[in-house]
Amino acid sequence: MASIDTLNLPLDETSAADLSAVGLEYARVDADGEGFRPFQRAVARGFLGGESTDDEAENSRKTLRTRRLTGVFDRSGTEPEVPVGTIDSWAAPLTTSPGRTCDLWSISAVTVAPTHRRRGIARAMIGGELRTAAAAGFAVAGLTVTEATIYGRWGFSPAAWASDVVIDARRARWTGPVAPGRLDFVPRASLVERLHAIHERVRVQRPGSVPGWDGRWRGVAGIAPGDKEAEKVRAVAYRDAAGTERGILVYTIEETAEFSAHDLNVRALFADGDEAYAALWRFAIEHDLVGTVKAWLQAPVPPVQWMVSDRRAVTATLTDHHWLRVLDVPGALSSREYSAPLDVVLRVDDPLGLADGAWALHIDAAGAASVTAVDDERAVDLELTVGALGSLLLGGVRASELGATGLVRGDRQTLAAVDRAFAPAATPLLDIWY
Ligand SMILES: CC(C)(COP(=O)(O)OP(=O)(O)OC[C@H]1O[C@@H](n2cnc3c(N)ncnc32)[C@H](O)[C@@H]1OP(=O)(O)O)[C@@H](O)C(=O)NCCC(=O)NCCS
Question: Is the pLDDT of residue 3 over 70?
Fold first, then answer.
């Protein structure tokens, strides 16, 4: 899949025709062309941000050069060069099991100008992305969402959850493991490289994860232009007893009214292994003059809860985070390892037709899956929506739980067998926004 250049795939003709019928133009935007700044203005406006400076625009251009940018234009407006709809996308490996990936069509920057909302622009843009991705052979599309109400209608559904963690550091005495390695402060200028190196090792082990990119790490490191907290960013790295760097914590300290109880805000905590995880969390919790530690995008039940004297000092608020949309049923299901053998016929209901059909899923004793389309629908064991299939894919939710909602329909034994087979090797997690 790395061989497919998503930048050169053609524009979806259905979306182009639908938009043209209402007087709008659907067009690609070149990150190095004149259309880039207007595209970026439209995205910033969509997400309620300010106008970006030249430095900020250049910083984001570095990332967006690698992405497929598409805009919707109303050429009769007063600023015809500024798109009234924006979307960007790129290919990424989605970890489906430790050490295994599938081809993910990642989507971001979905905005529609408030002057042009509710006219079907988002529908055309998202439909266009899904058809283009499916035609190019991608197994799954994915996104992270601002609102949970938008994307279900296109078959996206949560597949990995994450929690926002707040720890009362004065109440939480460290009782967890004592890591044998050492912590050192590391310079901000080294963080892009360090974050990239650790995150690459972590994300291949964690279902639901995708790679970060330099622009994301520049943001975390406080070296992206326009970061109002840049000077406050500090980082420590954990090295194991053999001297290998295994983890990194990037944080800022935010003053509160009480001088001995400031907030430590975690910008990133990536740990390659249990030792690094314990060492970095202990550092944060025991930091002098800190009363509260706050971290985002942590595991749904964060292990740090088990490493302090009072687990209720740790509040973890769960949110749906990584939304997936299956495009190719055999490609998606055969990309992961399973925990138990299984033989079922699934009937997938997909209103967009991309994943629709009946599919025989065979999982052998080694946990490897093969999937074939079947014609005889009388043999169906399990019926489910394409959204439910996306939620089940990584094992982040159990079929028997979705069975109670009607999104998955099958008898109790089949649901239990699917639960056993789909149980993940590690709880799915996506530790960045995209
Ligand atoms: C969300 C957004 C992209 C929708 O664009 P839009 O062009 O107005 O949407 P469409 O006209 O194509 O509507 C498609 C469907 O989505 C629904 N919809 C649109 N925005 C919605 C929202 N915020 N919440 C719930 N439903 C929404 C529409 O009612 C319509 O429903 P239907 O399928 O029953 O007809 C737009 O409101 C926006 O730019 N919001 C701010 C930025 C943002 O939140 N982006 C999402 C990033 S993850």
Answer: no
Residue type, 382: L
User: Among candidates 182, 165, 311, which has minimal Cα distance to 244?
Assistant: 182
**Ligand 1 contact via 146 beta carbon (within 6 Å):** yes
Q: How far is the CA of 90 from the centre of ligand 1 (A)?
A: 21
Q: 64, 36 in Cβ contact below 8 A?
A: yes
Q: Tell me the C-alpha distance between 192 and 188, whole Å.
A: 8
For a pLDDT cut of 90, what percent of the chain falls above it? 97
| Helix spans in 30-120 (H) | 36-46, 54-64
pLDDT in tens, 170-227: 999 999 999 999 999 999 999 999 999 999 999 999 999 999 999 999 999 999 999 9
For ligand 1, whether the C-beta of 108 sits within 6 Å is no
Tell me, in angstroms, the distance from the centre of ligand 1 to residue 150's CA: 6
pTM listed for this prediction: 0.96
For the CA of 126, the closest atom of ligand 1 is 12
Say what the alpha-carbon torsion angle 191, 196, 201, 203 is, to the nearest 10 degrees. 120
- Helices and strands (H, E) in the chain, number of each type: 11, 17
User: Hey, which of 117, 151, 322, 352 would you mutate to test ligand 1's pocket, going by the most ligand atoms within 8 Å of its Cβ?
Assistant: 117
Domains detected in the chain: 6-143 (3.40.630.30), 163-320 (3.40.630.30), 329-422 (3.30.1050.10)
**Does the Cβ of 279 fall within 6 Å of ligand 1?**
no
Residue 1 has pLDDT above 60, yes or no: no
Residue 259 token pair: 């001088």
Alpha carbon nearest to ligand 1 atom 26, residue: 150
